Amino acid sequence: MGTASLGELAVRFGCTLQGDPDTRVAHVATLERADPQALSFLANPRYRRYLAQTKAGAVVLDAASAAGCPVPALIAKDPYAVYARIAAVLYPTPPVIPGRHATAVVDPSAVIDPTAAIGPFAVIGARARIGARCTIGPACVLLDDVTIGADTRLVANITLCNSVVFGERCLVHPGVVIGADGFGLAPSDGEWLKVPQVGGVRIGNDVEIGASTTIDRGAIEDTVLEDGVKLDNQIQIGHNVRIGAHTAIAGCSGISGSTTIGARCMLGGMVGVAGHLTICDDVVVTGRSFVNNSIRKPGYYSGGIPADETTRFRKNAARFHRLDELARQVRRLTGGTPGSDDDADDDNKDA
Amino acid sequence: MGTASLGELAVRFGCTLQGDPDTRVAHVATLERADPQALSFLANPRYRRYLAQTKAGAVVLDAASAAGCPVPALIAKDPYAVYARIAAVLYPTPPVIPGRHATAVVDPSAVIDPTAAIGPFAVIGARARIGARCTIGPACVLLDDVTIGADTRLVANITLCNSVVFGERCLVHPGVVIGADGFGLAPSDGEWLKVPQVGGVRIGNDVEIGASTTIDRGAIEDTVLEDGVKLDNQIQIGHNVRIGAHTAIAGCSGISGSTTIGARCMLGGMVGVAGHLTICDDVVVTGRSFVNNSIRKPGYYSGGIPADETTRFRKNAARFHRLDELARQVRRLTGGTPGSDDDADDDNKDA
Amino acid sequence: MGTASLGELAVRFGCTLQGDPDTRVAHVATLERADPQALSFLANPRYRRYLAQTKAGAVVLDAASAAGCPVPALIAKDPYAVYARIAAVLYPTPPVIPGRHATAVVDPSAVIDPTAAIGPFAVIGARARIGARCTIGPACVLLDDVTIGADTRLVANITLCNSVVFGERCLVHPGVVIGADGFGLAPSDGEWLKVPQVGGVRIGNDVEIGASTTIDRGAIEDTVLEDGVKLDNQIQIGHNVRIGAHTAIAGCSGISGSTTIGARCMLGGMVGVAGHLTICDDVVVTGRSFVNNSIRKPGYYSGGIPADETTRFRKNAARFHRLDELARQVRRLTGGTPGSDDDADDDNKDA
Q1: Model's pTM, two decimal places?
Q2: How far apart are the C-alpha atoms of C165 and C199, rounded to whole Å?
């Protein structure tokens, strides 16, 4: 852990300093729990009520909040981003200590940069290429023909199947499985024939993949995550999916096979996207939505019906199951023609 | 496996015995498949139809069902709890056999109680503290500064990241990942900055965590599971979440970051809870609900719309997408004023 | 990788050949990207637009599409199944190389067929039985009393708990956990008692299980997957579930405890099925459905409400929360009797 003076931080990150430039901060804390050695921040208005009482050494906040800050302040246009940068100074990523743990099993044909670190019980298959300053953590299994770009870190207990390719500066959390076969099945006489999954997985630079997320290999061509994609935990990415640069997806979401998601999209938690769709750039899908049509226009999309008290919810859900009938009744009351009632069937058009 | 006489069991667990106290039972079985050495139970009325024909050695049931029981009965107010206690007698947890497998990699600074068992290919990092009679099963990876209280059992293939703290008597199933980074990202010029995740994870006593569940470390403060929390499989717990004592959550649920759930709550399967919410004590959320408002009153909450035949469902879903229009039509028919129509927008109030 | 002439393939798989029988194909490709050594196929009408320009060496397609094919064609009634069979010829599964990696930890009481392959850091518990030509990949953990039928392949990093039984020719992807305890809890004085989970898991022949799927052991009897079941990634199968032969379930679905699903069913992605239900044979449940009633009639069932633009969706969702009231208003307008309004409560009948 480092420490830093407010003066240094203000200069380095372009903040206006309100307070003593020699004050030093050594760690981060919430407004509510901060002590005088702590740096805190205010970005979410939910937490504004804690500002007046904070004991922090300094708070990163925007100009509008600065007047209400009882302690030194680093004033920035985007306090959360500045907080993230300062926290990275106070909590630097430990340097990679090069070397191969004695227990690691490495195929003789693997090419491992001497500055990389290979942990205990790692398995590295044939023809692997591991770049400079990579970390292959404990119990990671890399099957054959895997390529890992420089400065990428596999934390622990990660499985990369054959021919997975990673770019540089990626971070992969435990439990992740990349390159397992997609769910390719052809029906044949009441049984299922396996369709060989012969594509690979290509992952760009600066990608982060959360714990226990799974990314299937392509059926024929590759499954692709472009640069800067951020995936949370327990996400499932089907075969042949392509995710555009700097798109972020929250936990428990699932993207079905052959769907393409554009750049700079944001998907909330537990979003499900059906297969063979296209979502354009700059789309936000809020949590729990079910996307089963392509989205061709940037904007906000939603789909999760919020919970309610059980008795009330069940009454409404029962009515939902007769909604078409209800609409037809209303149509009759308003004198509409029965012929126009078939608008109940247009649910499958693209949004 | 043990055996026990009905007489012993009745005394030990406070049941009224109907039948011969010397009858012995040696294993458990369902009412339908039980043989005369089997103990069975009746708790769910769904299975009452199997009682009259059962061949069980004895059945645990409540007083109301006792008259219909053709074999010896252990009559209890809460038959399922008594069944659970008796099953634990018949199937005792095997004792922990102390020792460290020759293949385990243990940092010299780790302090491991001599009564603990460390399995093959376990990795135990710096400054770990492993309590009495713990089991660290095969292929578990504990990164640095992990603490495990007495009698806690990590079955196999579990990853605990830095600084995870477990209480006593916990049970953790394979595939679990605890302490991976939360999904903390700050937008900056169309890209994402990683927000360092510097909090930890603290888990109380008597907590059970199901297979492949993931629990993220806190962003600043800790993610906390209080005593007696029970999590099923494939659950995602976001950073800074706090779950109150004796709350149980069924499989595939996800709790977004910074949400607090009270004590003695029950969440069904595939429940999604949005971030930064508060759910009070004694709340039951039925399966498949989407909670996106805080819940401040104990009670039952629901949200999953049940499936229907596809043709019918699609017609109703299409109508749903025009429900606001339908309601406005009805309003006009009833002579309501258009001004009051903005009640369609109050969906975001707390429940 | 193999190569094959169109003549051989037409004879072997019963296709009508349109073109030169001596043309050879060496790999597979999509219509859009194929080169003259590639075999491609047309099964999904979405991709028909790429046929006219394809550079493939040959295309597998049906008779109706053959006229529009600019290159040699293998005409088949079911092009996708024929494609799957040919791809398996071009990309044969590598033969199993018998042997036990020096690092594997195998209990002396385990019986392992000499033709099986045991990878690095595999752990094989007491009394295991591993059949002919099995692969137990790197870092797989098999606790005690596991049985694996011939030709079954555990790719890597898979955990099988005690007493799991696999049939022949199964394929299991990384991250899978089978046989962890089911979520069996009995409430007792505001806390939870663990109900011992003493059943096993039995898996038939030709079953495929996707990455990070979890299958719990039975509470008393076994959890069962019959022959030919295909599970995608991140699926949760609760205790005592039984899944009939040749049923396929897409990713992120969850089946709650004690539910029975029939043969030849298809469940889409993110489907949730409540506990203690019965789904008959030949049922198709589309993606994102929530099944909370038994299904007793073969057919198509749906339940996911598609996403919409956020503003519009929220208005409709707000109306949903007052749908019962709306229906009562319409009832009054049509002159219906209030007594019949209690049809809002019949939501819990079996579908």
Answers
A1: 0.96
A2: 12
